[in-house]
Design goal:
This protein is of the alpha/beta class and 191 residues long. It has eight helices and five strands; from the N terminus they run E-H-E-H-H-E-H-H-E-H-H-E-H. The longest helix has 21 residues.
C-alpha cells in the first residue's frame, strides 16, 4: 500500500508523518518512509536546489519529475506492507500549476511515475494538509508557499474533489490531527 502526505509548506505534514511512523513502529507494522524529492541521492541534491535557489517553473517541473522517477523506481522495489511518502504528484500541480499549462504538467507527471511500460507508482491514499502554520525560519520554499497560499490550497482542494482515496486533514493542534490520522490509518490498515 502507498500513502502520501501532501499539502502546503508549513502545514505539519512532515511532523504528522513522523508521528504516524513512530506509532506504526510501536505496533511492529512493517513500513517505509520516503520524501519527494529527497529519498534518493540525486533527489536530495534537487531538494537542496529548491530550498536555496529560485527556480523557474518549467525547470522545476523537469527537475522534480526526474527526482520522482528515481523515487518511483525505488518505491516499486521496496518489499514492505506500507510505503508512506512526504509529498508526491499533487504538489507539482499546486506549486508549478500557477505558471505552467495543466496539460503539460499532467503529461510530465504521468511519465514521472512510470517504472516500466505499463506499471505506474500511484498512491492508494492521499492525506492533504491545507492549513499553513507560522514558522519562524522560512526557507525559500516556505516563502513561495506563503505568497501563493490561497492558490496552492485551492489546487490541492480541487484535486481531492470526488476522490474517495483523498482525505483533508482538519485544522487543529498536533494531537488533534494525529488522532484523526491514527483513526484513518486504523481503518485503512485494519488495525
Amino acid at each position: 500500500m502507498f500513502i502520501v502526505f501532501d499539502g502546503i509548506d508549513g502545514a505539519g505534514k512532515t511532523t504528522q508523518l513522523r508521528k504516524i511512523s513512530t506509532w506504526l513502529k510501536e505496533l511492529n507494522y512493517d513500513h517505509s518512509v520516503f520524501k519527494d524529492p529527497g529519498s534518493t541521492k540525486i533527489g536530495q541534491k534537487i531538494r537542496e536546489i529548491f530550498l536555496n535557489n529560485k527556480v523557474d517553473a518549467l525547470s522545476a517541473l523537469f527537475l522534480l519529475s526526474a527526482a520522482r522517477t528515481m523515487l518511483a523506481n525505488k518505491i516499486a522495489k521496496y518489499n514492505t506492507n506500507l510505503v508512506i511518502c512526504d509529498r508526491y504528484t499533487d504538489s507539482t500541480f499546486a506549486y508549478q500549476g500557477k505558471f505552467l499549462d495543466k496539460k503539460l504538467i499532467e503529461e510530465i507527471v504521468e511519465i514521472s511515475i512510470l517504472v516500466n511500460k505499463t506499471e505506474r507508482v500511484a498512491p492508494d491514499y492521499v492525506f492533504l494538509f491545507l492549513n499553513q502554520y507560522k514558522k519562524k525560519d522560512l526557507n525559500l520554499m516556505d516563502k513561495v508557499a506563503s505568497e501563493n497560499a490561497d492558490y496552492i490550497n485551492q489546487v490541492f482542494y480541487e484535486r481531492s474533489i470526488d476522490k474517495k482515496n483523498y482525505f483533508i486533514v482538519p485544522e487543529g493542534d498536533i494531537d488533534f490531527q494525529f488522532n484523526f490520522l491514527q483513526a484513518k490509518f486504523k481503518e485503512i490498515l485494519c488495525l
